[in-house]
UniProtKB/TrEMBL annotation:
SUPFAM superfamilies: P-loop containing nucleoside triphosphate hydrolases. This is Isoniazid-induced protein IniC. InterPro entries: GTP-bd, P-loop_NTPase. The lineage of its organism: Bacteria, Bacillati, Actinomycetota, Actinomycetes, Mycobacteriales. It comes from the Bacteria. Residues 52-189 form the G domain. One of its GO terms (molecular function) is GTP binding.
């Protein structure tokens, strides 16, 4: 199924312009001598690749299933294979292959067939991470990092995740492996250790989204008196309150339904088999699922047919999708599963606002690397020149706003400036800079901008952290720029 209609392209021009600017900065850095060449090469890779989304959560929270759904390809192993215990990165590329990167830098190249990687080529303890390449249109917009889990039953799994996502972001020679945004999967309210882990990833709520996974079995499940997906949607809102300092929002998702529909499991045979159950009532359906021989309920309907349906559409698909299969066939059933699963909304978010914020995130990380090099590299004067030229470009306005947002979020997570910063970063019009509708009257927008400017000037007299004071100054610049744009 083509999900291009669910891809948000409205930010593409801004993303492309900023990517060009950052690439030029990396190229300029490389001219400073061999001491800077390796850093420049890593930065060039980081800023020129598609935004990279890290998928994190506890063991068996549905991370690999989500990767398969997002790529519409069974690329991530979902069983108990050793390959699920290593961090895997997925990229668009040919030929289809896996490159297993050892902790010592050794690379083991393994050709990929039509399914997921089944062997590592070296002991798991020697593996740093795996890079997998396959020709895939979805990966041209988003590359993915699948992790073995956080706070899992095995300390080793969490250590592998931390080595790449937490410790790796401190090593500028691994900049091309850094994540730009985050999807956090949970099947319940977040635990304290999960919140702690999220805080260590260097992300902000603008680049992070939460997923209430396994939404099709939420509450009492498919046979409960309330639709589990509707219940999960309501519960996601309460979890969003608990995670408001970590993610921008929490969405319900049935990764199983999305994966099954998008990787081609919903065939005409599946739809016809499911259609046999359309006339049944609730109690009869329950008997079909639970009885050893369901043919006592539906003549000719075997246990093998029942098990096939459970493997492809699940209990919820049997309950809620049987009439759709009878009426609309395989195509209708597949479209219903995709829409009902929540994968469309997730794709829109990942390719839209979060994709844009992810580029701002990596731009800020590039500035962090330049700051580090300017303080200690033998060619620091060249680095400072690159910094100066880069920061003078108009396209860096939103990067500096985002940097202030990130620093304020890290130092003062309850700051009253975070909301205004977030609005100014996301704004496309002068009105949106100050939280007004894009179509708001010009006089109202000017008045609110002037009011906000006065508010920022008054805040200068109060007690602010260093990050907040810089954020206040950035907002002054943003409000003044918005006023100038209206004149």
């Amino acid at each position: 199924m083509n999900m291009n209609q669910n891809v948000d392209t409205s930010r593409d021009a801004s993303i492309a312009a900023l990517t060009t600017l950052l690439t030029q900065a990396a190229d300029a850095l490389a001219q400073g001598g061999p001491e800077l060449a390796e850093h420049a090469s890593e930065l060039r890779k980081m800023v020129s690749r598609p935004p990279r989304v890290a998928v994190v959560g506890r063991l068996k929270s549905g991370k690999s299933t989500l990767v398969n759904a997002l790529t519409q390809h069974v690329i991530a192993a979902t069983g108990t294979l050793e390959c699920t215990m290593a961090v895997s990165m997925y990229f668009d590329g040919a030929p289809a292959r896996a490159e297993v990167i050892g902790v010592d830098g050794q690379v083991e190249r393994i050709p990929l067939g039509n399914g997921p990687l089944t062997e590592l080529g070296m002991p798991l303890d020697n593996v740093d991470h795996i890079e997998q390449f396959l020709p895939n249109a979805q990966l041209r917009r988003l590359s993915l990092i699948d992790t073995p889990g956080t706070a899992t039953l095995t300390v080793e799994n969490e250590a592998r995740t931390r080595r790449v996502l937490v410790d790796g972001q401190k090593d500028t020679k691994r900049a091309s492996s850094w994540a730009d945004s985050l999807v956090f999967l949970s099947d319940s309210a977040p635990r304290e250790d999960e919140k702690l882990f999220l805080s260590q990833l260097g992300m902000t709520p603008l680049t992070s989204i939460g997923l209430l996974s396994r939404a099709d079995s939420f509450g009492e499940g498919a046979f409960g008196h309330r639709d589990p997906l509707d219940y999960a949607r309501e519960h996601a809102q309460s979890i969003a309150g608990e995670l408001k300092n970590s993610v921008s929002q929490v969405l319900p998702l049935s990764g199983f339904m999305a994966e099954s529909a998008l990787v081609g499991r919903i065939t005409g045979d599946v739809a016809r088999t499911l259609a046999h159950l359309a006339p049944l009532g609730r109690e009869q359906l329950l008997d079909v699922i639970e009885l050893p021989d369901p043919s006592t309920v539906v003549p000719g309907f075997t246990a093998q047919m029942r098990d096939m349906l459970l493997d492809t559409v699940g209990e919820y698909g049997i309950i809620a999708g049987r009439e759709i299969a009878a009426r609309d066939g395989a195509v209708g059933l597949m479209q219903w599963m995709v829409e009902r699963s929540g994968i469309n909304r997730l794709t829109e978010i990942l390719t839209g606002e979060i994709s844009y914020f992810a580029v701002l995130q990596r731009a800020v990380r590039m500035l962090d690397v330049l700051d580090e090099l300017a303080g200690g590299n033998v060619n620091r004067e060249h680095v400072r020149w690159v910094q100066s030229v880069t920061l003078s470009q108009p396209g860096m306005h939103f990067v500096m706003l985002y940097r202030s947002y990130r620093n304020t979020y890290a130092s003062t997570p309850d700051s009253t400036l975070l909301g205004p910063l977030r609005s100014a970063i996301a704004a496309r019009t002068a009105a949106e800079v100050v939280d007004l509708p894009a179509a708001a009257p010009a006089d109202q927008v000017r008045a609110e901008l002037q009011r906000r400017l006065g508010e920022m000037q008054n805040m200068a007299m109060g007690l602010l952290s260093a990050a907040e004071d810089e954020a206040r100054e950035r907002l002054v610049v943003a409000y003044q720029a918005a006023l100038k744009a209206m004149s």
